[in-house]
Design goal:
Length: 233
């Protein structure tokens, strides 16, 4: 079985020897008098990933400090990235992948004589969920009604007011935007295409979802493919 690990849009020079994924539960257990324990089921918490990485000094295409700078920028810049781990059979058939938007929580750098010049880093990642606030717009509309009290008194006008509340999201759901096309060239990847056309490489999933009829694996695109590039607001 073949494994490939991607972080910050980069293929890691060495596949981690192990991967720990912790899916945290938020259920709450209470004990009732004479009834024993009961469990309240709640929405799961954020997934946590422990990722041991090795950055080789002499055998890699890039030096360890290149990858260490990526970790430092993500931490100090408070930015997110996409963690991807793909699994394929020896003949290249995709089995399944782990694809999750994460933040870098902390990492530990270890330099040991047993590893020579290579640098070992244990990175703790945490799932990131997009969130936003909601605003309420209140519209008022006045309606006039006339009520005759008696034949001896003048008609009295009464005014009633109705209010309509419209809930809008600061982050509106994606509608069917106009799209452009792009022809894949040598050296392209979805991350770089998304960074060029959508302004953020982490939005590569938007391109992948718009081209599932052409792309079976988001990490494998081919020269000459004509991809649909959705427009986002």
């Amino acid at each position: 079985m073949s494994y490939k690990c991607y972080l910050f849009g980069q293929l890691m020079p060495e596949t981690p020897s192990k991967l720990t994924v912790k899916i945290k539960g938020k259920n709450k257990t209470l004990e009732l008098l004479n009834e024993g324990e009961i469990n309240f089921l709640r929405t799961p918490g954020l997934t946590e990933i422990t990722l041991p990485l090795t950055f080789p000094m002499l055998t890699g295409s890039r030096r360890p400090d290149y990858y260490l700078n990526l970790l430092e920028k993500a931490k100090t810049g408070r930015s997110t990235t996409q963690f991807i781990m793909t699994r394929t059979t020896p003949n290249g058939r995709l089995l399944f992948d782990t694809n999750i938007k994460v933040s870098v929580e902390d990492y530990t750098i270890t330099e040991s004589a047993t590893n020579g010049l290579d640098v070992s880093v244990e990175v703790n990642l945490k799932q990131y969920r997009d969130y936003g606030t909601k605003t309420i717009k209140v519209e008022t509309e006045a309606k006039k009604t006339t009520a005759a009290v008696t034949q001896q008194t003048q008609p009295k006008k009464q005014t009633t007011t109705t209010k309509t509340a419209t809930v809008t999201k600061e982050r509106p759901a994606t509608t069917a935007p106009k799209a452009t096309t792009y022809t894949v060239k040598k050296g392209d990847c979805l991350w770089n295409i998304a960074k060029k056309y959508l302004g953020n490489g982490a939005k590569y999933n938007l391109i992948y979802n718009a081209n599932k009829d052409k792309i079976k694996n988001p990490n494998l695109i081919y020269v000459g493919q004509v991809l649909t590039i959705p427009q986002v607001k």
